[in-house]
Sequence to fold (188 residues):
Amino acid sequence: MKHPNEATLALHAGGDLGFFGRWRVRRHVARCEACREEVATYEAMREILPDLSETPEIPWNRLAADMKANIRLGLAAGECVRTDDAPLRHSPLFTGARAAIAMASVLVLLATGLVLEHPTPRPMEEGLVVQTTVDGIQVKKGSHSLRLMNVGTQRAIYSPDAQGGMSSTYVDGETGQVTINRVSLYAE
Fold:
């Protein structure tokens, strides 16, 4: 059985809980002797509180005068101890340097973001060439080559890209199957 916390029991004793909370606590208190005693204690305290509001007369004007005098004394002591040097936060050179450092940090952050967002492609090997042939795409270096052939096609669409790669899309005339080949010279 989970007991309500003390604040909930105090609110229940004062009649300040909402409908659902009041219903839940009332059900619990009906079965739990410890919580019932706690609620009774809070109700008893509620009955004696009005009597406590009658406090003896306090000399508020005298207390206010003492507080003002203490504040003035503290300010005067602070003036005696203070040096003539201006704090760093009021120095124009320091605030200008802080602004320059902040601006440089923002620029470095932006430049890093741009470099990471758009990396420059690097070729995998020098001397590689991607080209189209009558029957497909060919990657060639010197006398060596690799060819992706479009066999049995009536029509192929070749698309070069800005990084030096090539794509070919073709449809097999007999089966109707679409094949897409992509060759890139750059590491991604």
Observations:
- The radius of gyration is 42 Å.
- The first strand starts at residue 129 and ends at 133.
- Residues 92-117 form the longest helix (26 residues).
